[in-house]
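User: Hi! I'm working on a homework problem where we have to compare a predicted structure to a textbook description. Could you give me the structure for the chain below?
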Amino acid sequence: MVEKLLSHIGNGRADLASAMFAEVIDFDIPHHDDVWWIPVVRTRVEFESFLSGLGAELETIRFEIDEITVTGPDAIITGELEDRVIRTGRSFVSRFSLTVHVESGEFTRYRFIEDTAAVHAAASSKDRH
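Assistant: Happy to help. Predicted structure tokens:
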């Protein structure tokens, strides 16, 4: 299930990725308030909307998975990504960890941890010195 989810997300298939989720989702991506593309997500529909909008906000340069660890209904995916914020033209590199949980054949949790300082800097319209 995890590999299928990552494939759908990577191929821009928000509809197929979100169809793998329960109606109510425990979703969290910690971020600075200035990172406008990360909304509050509580439902499958909101998750699909979030995924659908990512392509207009971020250009994926690199997304590499180091490891997928599955223990019962939980999976942790770790790796490194590089994205460019389209609005600012700035890129960021971040290690990441994605935690998902499955109940009754559907994902009920999606928690993505990344370098929030790097993301915020790339999203900022101010020059860094």
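For your comparison, note the following. The helical segments are 2-10, 14-18, 44-57, 116-123. The CA atoms of residues 15 and 92 lie 27 Å apart. Good luck with the assignment!
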